[in-house]
Specification:
2 copies of one chain form a homodimer.
Chain A: H1 3-10, H2 12-23, H3 35-51, E1 56-60, E2 67-72, E3 85-91, E4 111-113, E5 116-118, H4 122-141, E6 149-155, H5 165-171, H6 173-176, E7 180-183, E8 195-200, E9 202-211, E10 217-218, H7 219-222, H8 229-239, E11 241-242, E12 245-246, H9 260-268, H10 273-280, H11 293-299, E13 302-311, E14 320-321, E15 324-333, H12 339-353, E16 359-369, E17 372-373, H13 379-392, E18 397-401, H14 407-415, E19 419-421, E20 437-438, H15 440-462
Chain lengths: ~475, ~475
Amino acid sequence: MDAVLKVLADNHGSYLRDLAEFVAIPSVSTDPVHASDVRRAAAWVAQRLRKAGPIEVETWETPHYPAVFGRWNGRRHMGTAGAPTVLIYGHMDVQPPDPIELWHSPPFILTARNGRLYGRGVSDDKASMLLPILAAEAFFLAGEQPPVNLRFIFETEEEIGSVSLPPLVRERRDALACDLVLSADGGMWRPEIPSITLSSRGLAGLSFSVRGPGKDLHSGRHGGGLANPLHAAAELVASLHDGGKVAVAGFYDDVEAIHPVLRKSLEQLSFDEKKYLADVGASAGFGEPGYGMLERQWYRPTIEVNGFYGGYQGPGGKTVLPSEAHVKLTCRLVPNQRPDDVISRLRHHLENYCPPGINLAIKETHDGAMAYRVSPDSPAVRAAADTLAQIFGIPPDFVGMGGTVPITTTFREVLGADTIFFSFSTADEDIHAPNEFYRPERFRLGLEAWVLIWRNLAKQLHGR
Amino acid sequence: MDAVLKVLADNHGSYLRDLAEFVAIPSVSTDPVHASDVRRAAAWVAQRLRKAGPIEVETWETPHYPAVFGRWNGRRHMGTAGAPTVLIYGHMDVQPPDPIELWHSPPFILTARNGRLYGRGVSDDKASMLLPILAAEAFFLAGEQPPVNLRFIFETEEEIGSVSLPPLVRERRDALACDLVLSADGGMWRPEIPSITLSSRGLAGLSFSVRGPGKDLHSGRHGGGLANPLHAAAELVASLHDGGKVAVAGFYDDVEAIHPVLRKSLEQLSFDEKKYLADVGASAGFGEPGYGMLERQWYRPTIEVNGFYGGYQGPGGKTVLPSEAHVKLTCRLVPNQRPDDVISRLRHHLENYCPPGINLAIKETHDGAMAYRVSPDSPAVRAAADTLAQIFGIPPDFVGMGGTVPITTTFREVLGADTIFFSFSTADEDIHAPNEFYRPERFRLGLEAWVLIWRNLAKQLHGR
């Protein structure tokens, strides 16, 4: 048996203990109350990376939260007929566990149940980002050198739009210089068939508040005389769509027609929409008319309201005409749409539709991210496809991703490197929702896959 | 000096201590967590009424919360050339204090500040319902008999639509038999001019929930493919109005034209809309086109959303496509509109407008109440007007009330008695909102007014 794979098999129990330790740190980057936990996660990752072998590890401070960097330069560089340099990306921050009462086990205690591993962040992205660290360690423990030069960058702000990472990548472009990025974030499409994701959607977000009267008022005494902020917010939200299509002027202007390769992959995929709807518990699909479910989720832009609140929410009723209402929303973008342009169109739309007697305050909430795509013909995609075919015994599907990995655009712009999504999370693992989970077999196969892809990349990229 | 008024003057300090004790009981009827506090308030009122004099006091249990009844029958009955019997109504339950962080002093500690008395429920309706108890006591302490026979009924469910009171009034119609009801609930229009309210609006309410997917989903992964319950709820809420006018089919069908007397009063009132808007902190008025501010608030029906919530409300953002959204709303009705008819039209409307992929669940939340009005020519209204003219030195305005006192309709139907609103709260006292307050001078004048109105009623009604 291959010595590296034997190390992996022999140590699997300790890898699960590592994962449990990692999940136990509630590194919720969206909520300032968890600031020290986010920093604790960074310290844990730095320490674990150091333990993995002769890797130089640095913690890079930013104006907000730190990132953890690692470098192993044991191979001669590709330019001198040596090995390629691969940058591995992942994130250690997680979403809030709300609504916490819907969890069947405590969100920050890794819990094995029903053949799954439950915990907030286990799928997005803690288990998947731990794999390359452990794979590198396995090479060193087996007395082998990894077949490629390694760089690691693990950030703490992915769930808040990777605020600090783009400037950090620019500042540290020399340390991060590489031939290819492998992202441990960005899950596979399905549990049963391996897949490689060739595109992700971009992101733009804003929140707005509408204010009517200066204080909460009795809705009997005052009702009928004044604009109700809940009515105004509802009208504004309703005005954003018309029968599933976004109704913001110019929203679709910059959207390019779908790439022929993607169109073809889309047509060849077998997709059971009924099963999907049953899985998510929806009675029907809904969205932009004229497009199929997958095309809408992967290749069409959206506006989704993520939160809407105002007035009385307690038990029973309260006859109040509230002073304020609040809406949080995000847009998913496709290639060629600029986040700042989309935000400015939205801003214009909301200001236009705001009714009399209502004051509107708009706040941009996410650093925008452009959409991303990579060509299926690139040697790196071929190396990844070969690896997954070896591990799973069937060739991977090429798919799109509805979510966002904002950093891909930065890596291309600053480092000139493509990013290949190489995550062993799966899209059905309830990330950002209660009872997030990971599949234990993926934790095992993923470790082997990281060993193999470095070997395959060394061959594919060396021969370029 | 009149002996009864002297007693009032001598004991004013102790009346304020009574009020502080009463306010300290958080009798929030809308929230089951306060069930024992509501019962504690009933016990407190029963004990205070007993202490006031030779009044027979009973606590009447209902399937929900109890009511407190009192009877003093010292005068011969009007039918035998004696005095009229007057039923005094008030309620001891209060609204929730939310949003609690906006209070400048603890809501359940009566706090004197800026020449006002602050506390949840002090204006609605604890101070005003305490006045007739204290006024009756003053007669007994002065060695005089009250000039009318007295009945008291204090309920604990006004803020939840007086659920148990109508059946209770029917069951106890003999004990409650009276010539007139004086309601200690239903505040005056303005602080500077006395007023008598000749109408109140009715109430109908419902809550609805919309459900899309069976669980919260990642809005990147799934967005664009499924109906978002927040969008659906916003569309439903937006569909209820069209430019300030209610857009529910048939909503205005049963609305009668305004009564000529009310039309005339409305035209004669001086109303400073700019000042009103400044007082409530609104930049403009808004509502049904073609009607003035006061007409919209007193004599036109409304739909107001009181609460709207779903998705993420915490700090920062969360890219979630939520499973559910919830809306609470109430309608204010005018004479001739039936609550059950309005609810059924609303139900029909919501079901009609609910978009595909969304499940709608509707729940009626308030026992409906018809609107109420009383004639300005009645002897009781004349007695009340004379009293206020004596106390304030100027004749009262005749006004309408935007809010609801559901029990007026029941009193008329079951007891055959008109209700005169005789409260010393004022409409600007932030009832149902943070920092509810009462005016100390009204607490003093109100006590004298109750003494005088019984005397005036004895004359006016006796002579009928």
